[in-house]
């Protein structure tokens, strides 16, 4: 997409790892921070998908702006919430921030704030000078009232979770992390339902933590194979697949091979789909 054309969605990747953050000499180019993606759909508001350790750098980037911030989680596992206490905007007086709780055991819990209990972290929500608010009732409706066009779908992941489709001016991005496309046992969502949810999306960000060599040991852990993410992208006729939520032990060189193999996979099938292995700093304008 040419930079001279007005973009309706800007996607930025701040954390692309799963499970646990780590920095090592062999994982510098793709980055070691856990899940966090920002979606800009206008100058005055930003949607943040997940609050892993990557959100710390995002906070620095947002500190000098006045944009309203909406933090939406895929689920409440630690690698998706642990960066929130280090998110600079929550310490800015009068900063407007909305957070959305996740479903667990039929009740809504605001895990972003509940981890700040004074025991696990020294700062409590009462100490925050920002104007934060936890939206526990009808979160999708609340987002619609703030001009976000977002739909969601249950993911196949232990502890439950959601994937999201964000649309704006005819463009769309789907965020499906921590999703096992072919889990053992009962599925929250069938493959064909994911295909319909992702149909013709401009960008599909999908969990691709595992390779065939990781199986069968990790079958049922709630993550997909790279090849399964590719199959979904092709079935849904997505335009650009982003392979995401990399295994913490996957090195830069190994991810380079994933990039090469995925590109070859689509080429062999004559599929006109762009594929990118996510890395910190990746920015897409659609």
Cα end-to-end separation? 7 Å
Provide the gyration radius in Å.
18 Å
CATH class descriptor name: Alpha Beta
CATH topology: Metallo-beta-lactamase, Chain A
Strand order in the sheet with the most strands: 8-5-4-3-2-1-15
**Element pattern in H and E:** EEEHEEEEHEHEEEHEHEHEE
Work out the helicity level.
10-25%
The proportion of strand residues reads 25-35%
Structural class: alpha/beta
How many domains? The number is 1
Largest sheet entry: 7 strands, mixed
**Poorly predicted sequence stretches spanning 5 or more consecutive residues:** 1-6
- The assigned CATH architecture is 4-Layer Sandwich
Helix count equals: 6
The total of beta strands comes to 15
CATH 4th-level superfamily: Ribonuclease Z/Hydroxyacylglutathione hydrolase-like
Mean of residue pLDDT values: 92
Shape: globular
SSE map:
Layout: E1 10-15, E2 36-40, E3 45-49, H1 55-62, E4 68-72, E5 96-100, E6 102-104, E7 107-109, H2 111-114, E8 131-134, H3 139-145, E9 149-154, E10 162-168, E11 171-176, H4 191-198, E12 203-207, H5 226-236, E13 240-244, H6 252-268, E14 274-277, E15 283-285
Parallel strand pairs: 3-4, 4-5, 5-8, 11-12, 12-13, 13-14
Antiparallel strand pairs: 1-2, 1-15, 2-3, 6-7, 9-10, 10-11
């Amino acid at each position: 997409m040419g930079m001279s054309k007005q973009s309706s969605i800007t996607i930025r990747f701040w954390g692309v790892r799963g499970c646990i953050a780590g920095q090592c000499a062999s994982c510098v180019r793709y980055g070691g921070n856990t899940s966090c993606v920002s979606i800009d759909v206008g100058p005055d508001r930003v949607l943040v998908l997940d609050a892993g350790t990557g959100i710390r750098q995002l906070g620095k980037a947002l500190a000098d702006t006045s944009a309203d911030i909406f933090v939406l989680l895929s689920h409440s596992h630690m690698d998706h919430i642990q960066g929130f206490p280090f998110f600079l905007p929550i310490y800015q007086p009068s900063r407007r921030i909305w957070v959305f709780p996740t479903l667990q055991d039929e009740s809504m819990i605001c895990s972003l704030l509940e981890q700040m209990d004074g025991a696990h972290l020294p700062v409590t929500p009462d100490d925050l000078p920002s104007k934060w608010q936890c939206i526990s009732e009808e979160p999708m409706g609340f987002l619609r009232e703030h001009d976000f066009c977002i739909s969601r779908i249950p993911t196949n992941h232990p502890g439950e979770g959601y994937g999201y489709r964000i649309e704006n001016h005819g463009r769309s991005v789907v965020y499906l992390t921590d999703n096992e496309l072919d889990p053992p046992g009962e599925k929250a969502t069938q493959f064909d339902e994911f295909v319909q949810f992702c149909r013709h999306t401009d960008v599909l960000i999908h969990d691709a933590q595992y390779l065939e060599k990781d199986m069968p040991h990790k079958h049922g852990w709630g993550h997909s194979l790279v090849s399964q993410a590719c199959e979904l992208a092709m079935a849904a006729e997505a335009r650009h697949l982003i392979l995401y939520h990399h295994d913490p032990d996957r090195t830069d060189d190994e991810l380079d091979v994933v990039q090469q193999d995925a590109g070859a996979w689509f080429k062999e099938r004559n599929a006109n789909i762009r594929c990118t292995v996510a890395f910190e700093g990746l920015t897409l304008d659609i």
